[in-house]
User: Fold these one by one.
Assistant:
Number 1:
Amino acid sequence: MSEGHDEEREFDLRWADGAEHKEPSARARMLAARWKDNPPGPVPFRADPEHGGSAGRSSWVSTAVVLGCVAAVILLLGYLDFRPY
């Protein structure tokens, strides 16, 4: 094919979205084949209550650590900016 002919082509997304048959992705085909013989078990939407307490506490601790680090960086940058040369 000539190079000029390739430049004239343009992929039209509206045309592609309007296709009657859409092939599933490779991952969807792989999971469908795997789950045909061995379907996955049910997965709860939320964590078990007995395990949820420590996870909730650690998220607050990690949030406090991140906010503390951001505040320390802001203070350090402010100190370096106002320091006499």
Number 2:
Amino acid sequence: MFEKIPARALSDTVAQQLLEQIDKGTFASGGKLPTEAVLAQQFGVSRTVIREAISRLKNEGVVEPRQGSGVFVLGRGAARPLRIDSAEAATAGSVLHILALRRAIEAEVASEAALRHNKTSLRAIERALARIDEAVAQGRDGVAEDVAFHRAIAAATGNPYFLKTLTFLHQYLEAGMTVTRRHEALRDDLSHQVRDEHAALVEAIRARDPNAARHAACTHLYNAARRLGEAGLG
């Protein structure tokens, strides 16, 4: 029923495969999952890994452990948070897919930031951009500062769900961002291109031009995908 999995990201992969089987109806709502021992044997992992996977599904409202009785599947109406399998997200194709999702969201984020920012949030965006420059000047990759820059733009919208969604996506993109920023550091033309893209985005937001902000965000992230390809991740 289940695929044998590598040692990396074991509990996350087990949780994902269990969730897929639950969604398929293999384990019906209200039904009981196999015991830890049975699952451990089927997956080829330790019982500790199974317990961690069950704990994740419990925290996501998918299953409910009942002392002395086992682990039961909750009803399909239960709300579930968005989840992405970490091992799958690390593949080149998935990185580009997540980047495309980020592009769709950040285009609207930039547009909203242009319309809704105030003096305080605009200063936060400008400071975040300056910190990227400082990091690069100091010989660092600037990934954390790059993430903070885009978070500052999301915060400027006043919509907390934009910020939460981008925070969720960025955790799967930081490895790719590290590779591309190191690649960019080797070429002045790419470093200047990224700086110009960020500056254009800030200028559009400052000018309260939602269409220009949306275009600047899309351009930046289309080019980011291209740079991923040049760095060997596309």
Number 3:
Amino acid sequence: MVLFIIGLGCASCAKSEEEIQEEFDVIVAESNACNDPSECVYASPGCPLGCFVPVNSAKKAYVEEEARELIEDKERWGTYCQYECAVPGPLECVEGRCREGASP
């Protein structure tokens, strides 16, 4: 019975989707600096954090690992999602940040 009560109390410990997205946005913002488009690649975080995010190639593994941890934490509380992703556009380095460019 004690474990059940602790489990109920901890359900409020789960981060909301908005909190997870905000935390991930900070990680991406810290990971997408560039000097040239050749430094930019797409990381694939997964649902609900997006299909692709442009980041510096040196930070791709870090961003994907952080995304995986955030998603696993959310899924631990029984919240899952899935979606299909379209092919992303080309990458650019604009004002020192990697970003998706316009499709040709």
Number 4:
Amino acid sequence: MTRANRHIPFERLHNFRDLGGYTTEDGRAIRPGRVFRADSLSKLDGEDWDRFLTLGIRTVIDLRYPWEIEAKGRVPEHPSLTYHNRSIEHRPYDQAALAPSVDAGPYLAARYLEVAEDGTKEIRETLELIATAGDGGPVVFHCASGKDRTGLIAALVLSLLGVPEQTIIEDFTLTGRATPHLVADWRAANPNRPLTWPAYGTAPAEVMTGFLSALKSRHGSIQSYVTKTLGLDHTFTNALRAALLAPPLTFREATEDDLPTLVRLRDEAAHWQLAHGIDQWKPGQLGEPHFRTRLQEGEVWLTLLDDQVAGAWELWWDDPAAWGPQPPTAAYIHRLMTDHRVAPPGTGRLMLAEAERRISLSGRPLSRLDCLSTNPRLRAYYQAAGYTVAGEQPTKSTGMGTPYAVTLLEKRLR
């Protein structure tokens, strides 16, 4: 998975993130704008405060000790906000004063396990508050730096929602983007103290890997810990998923009746590309005859969210314009497009996975596609989905204008 920048920019907050858009093992996505993680909201003022209010957050869960709140303050009071203090950590420790020889991975993993065992009451109450986000509006939970106590709660929430463990670890490490700011803030607040621990403010993957491994070793699974130790059964987990997960996407093969919809999707995608500086698709370039041909010679699939069309793609059984003559060992994905007004984050990746599943069902072991050679961002997107560069085609021609160069990518399917 790529290290996408999920941080929401503030002047004084450095680690404010939306958990929305992460996808689950069963192909669903966390609703954007429903659950946030953050560093201390006591720093909110001025334009930062105005920006925070625009997010529509209704519930703030402060994971810090009461003495931290007394010393540093809390989120400003506002009629739209309900504030809760749930101090999940019971054994304070001073990371800044640790010796340089202390290894962040095993040390912090052990501290997280202590919190998971000591703070069961507060952790349970925190999870219950987050589960009410479906009815009560968006929720944010935070500690001081948004890394340790916040990271533990985020890991539990993401795990219960069914997000893959590697994604949970990746989410934890994203604090690394805020580390220089967290260190600078500490030095500014402690001008007469030395910062002896070089790992202060860092979030190496080994920390979360070690914590999750230890929690599962001791309790059997994250769900078992939540059920047996926290007293929250599968009914709670189902309620959490109902509150925070978008409805599942479904797929169906397009028919003649869908031709106007396909033309609309393609034209809107072309306008979006042009607006973002990508000169590849042109509005009005493909009409119903094109999609009718694709229905006859291959497959065209629609992606649905409830009853709304969220996207579509074409599946070809050969592609001589880009790949030349080939044996029947691959299928070719084209025109992967989404409706940005309907599709939740992660829809493109889910459509790609469904297209690959269709290719596997056909008995062909290779999925292939191409992208404009001058679009490295799109190439990186496909590489993050497991595709490798197979070559370059400098003069691809579709009969609709000047030939252009494309990068060829392929993925071997299981």
